[in-house]
């Protein structure tokens, strides 16, 4: 087809995307061959999705020979990857190929620039930019596509230099052709034998037939073996790893491989992987599980939510004989068969985690990657809450590394009735918190929780092994029951009048002022009311604009601290402590990682105090 100036539309990627393309091309040079894996995987996905759509719309059925064809052509130095999948409309070409790294172009570029050379390949699949790896071997890429059900075809084309074009085209059948104009230094990718080696390495387990044109004939290039249908003894670790990398577009090794066949009233095969590293795209970007559902080896959907959202990091395939091939999305939601499969698969993953949790060092790596996601299950899944509790791990005020609730209970002091926690935004800051002083003085361990979900799940778990779980910002009363350590230096002042004066001065900012014995070095600390949420939850509510539902905090003062003793004496001598009360409250807020209520006013009060000290 001859393109005219009026037919061709020009679109700019944007300056940031131009820089990103440069990074993809040059920073991933050592893994050039993965471009073919990415393009073949995209073609396989398109064919799979057409198969699924055809179950409810027979007119969309695949042609009898539903293959992926790889066509090298040395004379004009082009490499074509052709499929008979769903195809793309003009709008979809612009949307999918004109918008790079939807999960965060700037973030991807920064990660790629900062990563070590050996880490860079794993960034491709994790940021959804696999298609653009084609520019590592091609100086121009053309994508001609015809959407199933449409007579129109369009060609997207770009040299990877900041812009692309869209023009009308023609294609006899629905599907997509990706044509790469191979660079002079990448001619090895026009050799059919070299291409077959790459396919065998990266895509041998794609169940769709792949052919490579050699001497005018299409030669089969992959076995198309459904690994999950084999017994575990038949599959090598190398084969598992290749399939894992194909399945999730990943480049690391799986932390765990779970492969089994369920037999009896319910029959299915499952091959699941727990990744060995955390993806660069946040795991809360999409909370739905993407484990693939197959029926008799045929892909049906990756939206069946075969695992709960708190196991969404698990990759894999579940293949069953107990569903009809023409199952619809509506049937999937209602069928009891799928509900039983979900329950069985979830329990199997939990069993694997329980087994591996016994290996503390290996489990620590998993927990650092996905612990925050797993804790969501404690909050939202009442059925599995008790199963998840033994799998939780925490930083602690008393021991190095990660610890479990069971280990914590084994270290509890005589007379200690509860498991104590302190939630915040940063573990290092929590370890220095004034909230810990009284507990440290008594040798009481506190678990330090720094994930956002940690403000929520303790409310649902409530207890473990008969021991209640309590935030120390609400647990001051318990300390009086525990044996004290060394007696703090200095005699406590009579602060009865000071407490009353501070309460009057801070009437609208605190719900109560009281003396406390849980401070050693600090003068003041904030606490939550016993009936309301703890301090971390209060902070989150304020950030969400819902502070109106939260009672003001309690201000606790240390009657042994020289500052408090001085203020008590000043008040007894007829002095005014109102200004000091505001300063004490701001100091307590700063200790908990918050800003003063009025930073400018706080600065003036500090200046006045320092001027008085200097004078």
Brief characterization of the structure:
This protein has 615 residues and is α+β, with helices and mostly antiparallel strands.
What is the topological layout?
Layout: E1 9-12, H1 15-27, H2 34-56, E2 68-73, E3 78-83, H3 90-97, H4 105-114, H5 123-126, E4 138-146, E5 153-158, E6 163-169, E7 175-182, H6 192-202, E8 210-214, E9 217-220, H7 237-248, E10 256-262, E11 268-274, E12 292-295, E13 298-301, E14 315-320, H8 329-334, H9 336-356, H10 360-380, H11 385-388, E15 395-396, H12 405-410, E16 419-423, H13 427-431, H14 437-441, E17 447-449, H15 457-461, E18 463-464, E19 467-471, H16 476-479, H17 496-505, E20 512-515, E21 524-527, H18 535-543, E22 554-557, H19 562-572, H20 578-591, H21 599-614
Description:
The chain has 615 residues and is an alpha+beta fold. The chain has 4 domains: 9-220, 2-Layer Sandwich (Heat Shock Protein 90), CATH 3.30.565; 233-356, Ribosomal Protein S5, domain 2 (2-Layer Sandwich), CATH 3.30.230; 368-479, Rossmann fold; 496-614, Heat shock protein 90, C-terminal domain (Four Helix Bundle (Hemerythrin (Met), subunit A)), CATH 1.20.120.790. Strand 10 (256-262) and strand 11 (268-274) form a beta hairpin. Helix 1 packs parallel to helix 4 and helix 17 (496-505) packs across helix 20.
Task: Give the number of helices.
Answer: 21
CATH fourth-tier homologous superfamily of the largest domain: Histidine kinase-like ATPase, C-terminal domain
CATH domain class name of the largest domain: Alpha Beta
Structural class based on helices, strands and sheet pairing: alpha+beta
Task: Report how far the terminal alpha carbons are from each other.
Answer: 89 Å
CATH topology of the largest domain: Heat Shock Protein 90
Uncertain segments = 1-5, 101-106, 118-128
For the sheet with most strands, the description reads: 9 strands, mixed
The main sheet orders its strands as 1-6-5-4-7-3-2-8-9
Number of domains: 4
Strand content: 15-25%
